[in-house]
Every structure is written in C-alpha cells, then in structure tokens.
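Q: What does the predicted 3D structure of Cytochrome P450 look like?
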Amino acid sequence: MVADGAKLGGPFQVRAAAAWKVVLPNCFAEEIRNNPNLDFKETQHIEFPTTLPGWEGMNEGLRHDRLFTDLVRIKLTQSLNYITEDMVDEADYALNLWMSEDESSWKTYNVRQVGFDVVARITSRVFAGKGLSRNEAYLRIAKENTATSFIAGYTLLQFPRFLWPFLNRVMPYCRTVRRQLNDATHLLRPSIEATIKQYEDGDIKKGPKSGNALGWLIEIQKGRPLELVSFVGAQLSLSMASIENT
C-alpha cells in the first residue's frame, strides 16, 4: 500500500491501526520538521492508552513539560564524553557473558536475544548505575517492557476506545505491563531514594559527570513535578528508546 502510494509522487493516505495516516514525500521534511501541529507526543497518546493504570512509564516519556526531552538534550547529549568509559566497561562485561573465550568450542546464538541483552546492560549502566545493570530481574524488565508495551497497545487498538479501561485490566499483555511497572518501581526505589538524599545533603556536585539519569532528572527539574513514577518512567522510556533505535 505504501509502495503504491509512493508512485503517485505526492502526499497520500494509508489506513493504520489507530487512524488514517498522511504520508508526505521527503521534500516536505524541512518545511514540516518544526511544525508545532505535528507533535509526536500527541500521536502516541492517541495510539497508546497512556492515561490508564500501568502505562505511567510511557506517559512520563511523553510529558508536555518536556522533562524527558530536556533530560536527553541537556544531560545525556552533553555527557557522552564522560559515559564512554562506563559503556565500554559494561559492553566488555556483557559480551564476555555470552561469547566464550574458549576458541575450541562453537556455540549458536540468537542475535536478537544477544543484542537486546547487551544494549539493556549498557543503557542500564549509564542511566541507572552499575548495580542495576547487573541485576537480572531489572534487566529482564528493561528488555521485555518494550515489546510487551507495543504488543499490548496494538492489541487494544483492535477494540473501541471506550472499552480500553476495562480491557486494560483483564488482557494478559496489559496486566504484564502493569506488573513490569510495579516490579521496576520496587527495584529502582532504593537507588532513587538514595540519589534524592545525596542531593538533599549536598553530597553530589552538579554537572555532566554527576551521577546518572536519576540525578540528571533532579538537576533539570526546575519546578516541574518529579515523583517516584517520574524516575521509573524515565528509566523505562530511555531503555525503550535505546533498544528500539539500536
């Protein structure tokens, strides 16, 4: 359908899961790239049940006050030179877990499985700290939450929107999304509370080398609401973006 539309040489529509989508040729990219009416966040709120219980993690990544955007733009981008050493260390650790140095033995690997694990470990090391990057329970959530959320969202799109609140409570994938959020909150809480206390006590010097994404959120808060779910949601959103982009 998309290939047929592209032959027209101009804009065309396709029927997507959530609604009709307008596809524009590449020549329009420069003209529309900063158009405020084309807000990616708004489309995600339409296609996913971000306001329902269990979806708070995704909703935090789509906040209108740009907290998550500022986290990436101001903190992550400016800290790349400082996090490289941790990334290299974690990549070496992760690859050694999978790939034996014994050259006499051959093993078969699922590339997707290995890739998910390595990326999850590296991103968790940078965003949440070394302890959680070696925590198998947390890594499982970081890897599985992305796929589970998309499958659950796609499944809900098969039903009228007014049924979503009820279906979100009974459908297996939706229940899994809620459980993953609760489990992630339980695992992240000690690190979050420790980070908040360090900042309150003045034990951390602010700057690009300070802490990790937990501390970065505190530094860029600037009066914006910052609750426990904000930290957890940011971690899950960063993991989702990293795994999907990779």
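A (community wiki): The structure tokens above were generated from the sequence. The chain has a mean pLDDT of 85. Strands lie at 12-15, 20-23.
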